[in-house]
Each structure stands twice: as C-alpha cells, then as structure tokens.
Amino acid sequence: MSIEEDDRQLRHECGVFGCIASNPWPTDLDVAQIISLGLLALQHRGQESAGIAVSAGDNHTHFNVKKGMGLVSNIFNDEATKNLKGNLGIGHTRYSTSAGSEEVNCQPFVVHSAHGALAVAHNGELFNAGRLRRMVLARGVGLSTHSDSELITQALCLNPPDIEIDGPDWPARIRHFMELTKLSYSIVIMEKDRIFGVRDPYGNRPLCIGKLMSLTEPNKEEGWVVSSESCGFLSMGAKYVRDVYPGEIVEFTKEGFHTVSVMGRPHNRPQAFCIFEYVYFARPDSIYEGQMVYSVRLRSGIVLARESFVEADIVSSVPESGTAAAHGFSMKSNIPFAEVLYKNRYVGRTFIQPNARLRRLGVAKKFGAIVENVAGKRLILIDDSIVRGTTMGPIIKLLRDAGAKEVHIRVASPPLKFTCNMGINIPTKAELIANKLTIEQLAKHIGADTLAYLSVEGLKEAVTEKMPNKNAVEVGHCTACLTGEYPEELTF
C-alpha cells in the first residue's frame, strides 16, 4: 500500500484459502505447507491473525487446528506445518472490522455439532448481521465472539433438521444461509472429507479456483485450491482455473470439484463485485473476472491522463500501488516516467514518533526523495486514493524541499465519500477528506499545484474495457464507497 496505513485506515478484512489433495489418500502433498504459502500470498489482506485447520478425511469429529495472532510467517514455521498433517484443509488471515483484534476471533472457526466437526473461514461483512445474530440467539445458542464468521458457523449448524433424512445436508444448509443473507461473503467450509467454496449472490467479495499440478508429471493434477486471490498460485505450482461465480456453491473432493448450485440475485439485480479490489486491495498479479489487476490499474492511468492532462516533465507515483497507473498515465501523455520517491520497506506501523517535530516529519520515516529526478522538475505524482489527506501534504513538502518546481497530484480513483459496510474498514464519512473540502480546497490544503481524480465512469471504463464478458447483462460492480449506491439496503 502506498502510504502509512495508520493514516489511511483503509483496510481489508481478511483472506481465505483452501486446499484438497487428489486421490489417492493419504497424500504425499504437504497440504498445510500449501495453505501457509497461500496465506502468505494473501498477507496484504490482513496482518492481525492467521489460522489453519486440516482434516485427514476419515474422521467426523477431529480437525487439527493451529491459530494465532501475528503474521503468517511467524505463526506457521516449518515445525508448525509439519504438525498439521491432513489430506485437506482451510486457512485464514485476518484484519478485524466487525470484531476486535483478539485471539478468540482468529479463524477458521471450528464447531462440533451433532453431525461432526465443521470449520469455517469468511471474508466480508454480513449486511444484516444484527438480524441474523438475534435469530441465532433466539434458538438458544450462545455466541462467544462478535465475529460474523462465528455467526455464519452457528447459522449453518442451526439449519432446520426436518429437511434432512440421512445426516446433515450441508449444501442445503449453505443454501438456506444464503437465503437468509445475500451480502457480503466469500466462505470456505470444511467437513470431514470435502471443502465448499461459497460466494455471495452479488459476488461482492472475490474467490477463485486453482489446480495444483505435479512438479514431475506436467499434465497430472495433484489437488485443488480455492482462494480469495490467485496471486499465490504460481508460487505453489497451481494454475488459475476460474472465479467462483456469484451465488455459486462449489464442492471440492478428492475426485475434483463441481458446482452444487448457483443462487440468483433478488429482482434480477446486477452483480456487485467490489470495484476497490481493482483500485487498492488486490495484489497486481491477481486475476479477477478474466483479467489481470495490474492491467486494470494501467488502464486507469491511461483514462486519467485523458481526463486530467497537465504539462509536466516527469510522471511518477507514490509507491507502490500507484505505480501501474503512473505507467499508464505516462504512456498516454508521452511524459516520461521516473521514480521520485524511495520507500523504506523496513518501517512498520509500530514506529514510535517521540516528539512533535518527528510527528510533523512522519513521512520521512517512510519515504526518501530521489533528488536528481526531482530538482527543477514539474512533477505529476499518481496515487491510488486519498482517504484522510494527512500524508499527501508531507510527501509534497518532501518533494518541494528536494527542489520540485511544480507538483501536480492525480488520483487513479474517484473521491472516497461513503463507508463500505461490506468488509472494508473505511473511516466514517466525517473523516473522509473528500466530504470536507472541494478539489481546489484540498489541493491548497496539501500544497499541490493542481489535483484531479479519475471519474467514476472513467474507473468503470478501465475495469470493463478488457473483460471477456463485458457486454453480459449481469456484469456489475459495487461503487458504494464512491457513489453511496449500495447493492442492497443496510439492515440491522
């Protein structure tokens, strides 16, 4: 992410991952190691806690589970993964929104029902969590956390038993849950010898499928993975297959995967995939809707240059998520790209600023200016978003102190004006700088010569231009944080 997270307070809730080995079992595939690699690739989606639950596939009552606070690499070292033996498993890395940053909220959640153990990991935030919580409590179930994921787990276990004849019908229970709440979730669920991948009917949160290939026999598949993003697939020897469709329930077994069912949206409403996944959250090497995130960000810069060109000597970016858009802006404007900021990658969020002077110079701990590329130059600086506006000002001052003649800020997304309520921790409307100042006032406030945002229509164009099925009637993206238009009315 391009600037100090503590200033921006724009964070994703979590990432989910699942892996199942192909026949025969017991497998030689190190399932826990693959899941830990998957979670490591999803670390940008949450850094507070992580967990893995694995199953041998032959026991209804026992899963091997390890969870903890902190980064994936700190929790799952070689010794930890060696102790997690199994033929299938699911994992989770978390940043809290609806529940606090405590070990009790670490996922996956595992419950022991009358029908055996069930493990659940969830990305998103339930639009009607309050109503669902009251329903579960009314059934006499006590909840130990305020996590939506525990709520989902208990709701699955509480599905009316009178529709079942021979044990639990988990697909029917999942469909029943999806009827109770349409937003917002991607879920991986494990029971005994199978995994379910579930995506809400609007497709608001991402989920995709990959095939694990043999390292010795190129055309042989050794298992399947399901993940919030595809960015880690190549590093673990997996090939991206496709997204889980909005409303789809996919079942993974040792024989492969198949679609159990696909739930439609109310009143034939369009899909509502989070457009800010493209702008900010996803890793640039992930694939969404048949296209690379990097390519969408590049096109955003191209459209931004068309909409808000200004004469300058150099185009650059706030590292690192603004870089692809900056290259696009440079291509369209024919103004050369050059780096003007160096990002110190060894500074974390816990950096201590002991006095007022260092607090005012806070950006200095994160960035340095490349003076030779800055001095005497007119600069266009591209960033992916401006949230509170507290960091851009110090960055501009740093560049002016390095000799910049002009600094023009271009933002590769529209102004953030509304909260999310679907799994992204966006500050309150009152904290968002775009609700306090006009563009001209904000430019003056941060010390820029000019400031311009990408338009909402421009962002939609960049996202849909190269989509394989862009003309399909159901294609749609959630722009709630930009426009205030939510897929469904928020309920409590």
TrEMBL record:
Q: Which domain of life is it from?
A: Eukaryota
Q: Which HAMAP family match?
A: PurF (MF_01931)
Keyword Transferase attached: yes
Pathway(s) per entry? Purine metabolism; IMP biosynthesis via de novo pathway; N(1)-(5-phospho-D-ribosyl)glycinamide from 5-phospho-alpha-D-ribose 1-diphosphate: step 1/2
Q: Which Pfam families match?
A: GATase_6 (PF13522)
Listed EC numbers: 2.4.2.14
The species this protein belongs to is Macrosiphum euphorbiae
Q: Which PROSITE patterns match?
A: GATASE_TYPE_2 (PS51278)
Q: Which cofactor is essential here? A: Mg(2+); [4Fe-4S] cluster
Which ranges form a coiled coil? Answer: none
Sequence positions that bind [4Fe-4S] cluster = 274, 420, 478, 481
Q: Which family does it belong to?
A: In the C-terminal section; belongs to the purine/pyrimidine phosphoribosyltransferase family.
Catalytic activity reads: 5-phospho-beta-D-ribosylamine + L-glutamate + diphosphate = 5-phospho-alpha-D-ribose 1-diphosphate + L-glutamine + H2O
Keyword terms: 4Fe-4S, Glutamine amidotransferase, Glycosyltransferase, Iron, Iron-sulfur, Magnesium, Metal-binding, Purine biosynthesis, Transferase
* Protein name as annotated: Amidophosphoribosyltransferase
